[in-house]
Design goal:
One of its GO terms (cellular component) is plasma membrane. One of its GO terms (molecular function) is D-glucose transmembrane transporter activity. This protein is an all-alpha fold. The protein has two domains: 1-67, no CATH class; 75-188, no CATH class. The protein has nine helices and no strands. It has helices spanning 2-19, 27-33, 37-48, 54-67, 75-80, 85-97, 114-139, 141-165, 172-189. The chain starts with a helix and ends with a helix. The mean pLDDT is 78.
Length: 191
C-alpha cells in the first residue's frame, strides 16, 4: 500500500494549496522587499489580531535601514563567500540525507539503474535550490509556495498513473523517474 502512502502527501499539499490564498503575505516581505508599509501593518493585524505593533514595525524599519546599502548576492557570489560555508555544508548534508528517502525505489527499476536515479535526484535538488534562490526575491514566498504545491499535486497524480501503468508499458517506469525528478524540483521551489 505504498502508493496510498505516496498519495497522502499529495492530499496534504492539496489542503495547503486550498487554504494558502486566505493567508496574508509575510509582514517583513511586504515591508522590506515591496516597501508596502500599509500592507505590512494590515498583515500584522490579520496574523496577530488587533494590537499595537509599533515596536515590531520599528524593528523592521531599522532592519530595512541597515540592509539598504547591502548588495543582494547571486548564487555564484554566495558560493564564493567563505563566511557562508558552514550553512552551505549543513544544506549539502541535508540534501545528501534526502537520498535515503526511498523515492528512487518507487519507480520499480532494475537495481543497476538506481544509482543513476539517485544521482538524478541529487542534481534535481541542486537545480531547485539554485533556481529558487534566484527567483524568491522576485516573486515572494507565497507565489512559490502556491505554485510548488500545485505542481506537486499534479506531479503526484501523474506519478500514481505512471506507476499503475508501469506493468503494462515498461517505458512508463522511466516516466516515473522523470516525474520523481520534477516532484523534487517542485518541492524545492515551493515548500
Amino acid at each position: 500500500t505504498w502508493n496510498v502512502l505516496l498519495s497522502l502527501s499529495g492530499l496534504v499539499a492539496l489542503i495547503q494549496l486550498v487554504f494558502l490564498p486566505f493567508f496574508p503575505e509575510s509582514p517583513p516581505y511586504l515591508l522590506l522587499q515591496k516597501g508596502d508599509k500599509a500592507g505590512c501593518l494590515k498583515a500584522m493585524k490579520q496574523l496577530w489580531g488587533e494590537g499595537n505593533y509599533h515596536t515590531e514595525f520599528d524593528d523592521m524599519m531599522k532592519e530595512k535601514t541597515l540592509t539598504k546599502g547591502t548588495k543582494i548576492m547571486n548564487v555564484l557570489e554566495v558560493l564564493k563567500e567563505r563566511s557562508v560555508y558552514p550553512q552551505l555544508t549543513t544544506m549539502l548534508l541535508l540534501l545528501l540525507s534526502l537520498q535515503l528517502c526511498g523515492l528512487s525505489a518507487t519507480a520499480n527499476l532494475q537495481e543497476s539503474i538506481i544509482p543513476y536515479v539517485s544521482l538524478g535526484v541529487a542534481i534535481s535538488e541542486l537545480i531547485s535550490i539554485i533556481f529558487c534562490s534566484s527567483i524568491i526575491d522576485r516573486f515572494g514566498r507565497r507565489i512559490l509556495l502556491w505554485g510548488g504545491y500545485l505542481l506537486m499535486a499534479l506531479i503526484l497524480v501523474l506519478l500514481e498513473t505512471s506507476l499503475l501503468l508501469s506493468d503494462q508499458f515498461l517505458w512508463m517506469r522511466y516516466c516515473s523517474v522523470i516525474l520523481i525528478f520534477l516532484f523534487i524540483i517542485a518541492y524545492g521551489l515551493g515548500p
